[in-house]
Amino acid sequence: MASDSSPFKVVNWWCSFGSNTSQQMFIDFVTKYPNIQHVCVFNLGITSAVPNWDRFDPLPLLDKFSQDGKVKIANILTWLADPAILEAVDLGTPLHEIVKNGYQQGKQLNPIVKLKIAKWLEDNWQSFRNTGYLP
After folding, report:
1. What is the pLDDT of residues 102-121, one digit of tens each?
2. How many CB atoms lie within 10 A of CB 83?
3. Which of the pair, 104 or 126, is modelled with greater confidence?
4. pLDDT at position 46, please?
5. Contact (CB, 8 A) for 14 and 39
6. Contact indicator for 80, 48 with CB cutoff of 8 Å
7. Which long-range contacts (CB under 8 A, 24 or more apart) does 24-29 make?
8. Are 14 and 29 in contact (CB under 8 A)?
């Protein structure tokens, strides 16, 4: 992976919710393997269990790597749905299951909430596609 003449392209997708430890581990990895492509996914979250999850303050070196093009940035955007969906997600229900089957005790989704989820998912995929590593 560290070779300049690797026969294939490796992309390191690192998901971080912004802790200094997570960011520093990513920076160390980028420094150790400069010849592979790196994406730092800023996880702005869909959980209400982590306070202040809706912001990501990059360490100065991560910010510099991004500006220099050594690292691309993608985002998992802040989730703005109703509290019942947040609770279902916090309990481990995947979003695709909530969209397909409703949530907790068979409650069906309001059509507007379904549209919000679809928009949120599309915006996230667009952020990932903007890295240039996905079609």
Report:
1. 776 667 777 777 777 788 88
2. 8
3. 126
4. 55
5. yes
6. no
7. 24/59, 26/62, 27/59, 27/61, 27/62, 27/65
8. yes
Centre a 10 Å sphere on the Cβ of residue 123 and count the other Cβ atoms it contains. Answer: 12
Which residue type does 28 have?
A: D
Q: Are 103 and 84 in contact (CB under 8 A)?
A: yes
* Residue listed under structure tokens 């409703």: 102
DSSP one-letter string for the chain: ---TT-SS--EEEEEE-S-HHHHHHHHHHHHH-TTSEEEEEEE--S-SSSTTTT-----HHHHHHHHHTSEEEEEEPPP---HHHHHHHHTT--HHHHHHH-BTTTBPPPHHHHHHHHHHHHHHHHHHHTTTS--
How far apart CA 12 and CA 77 sit, in angstroms, is 20
Task: State the Cα–Cα distance between residues 19 and 39, nearest whole angstrom.
Answer: 16
In whole angstroms, give the CA distance from residue 97 to residue 50.
22
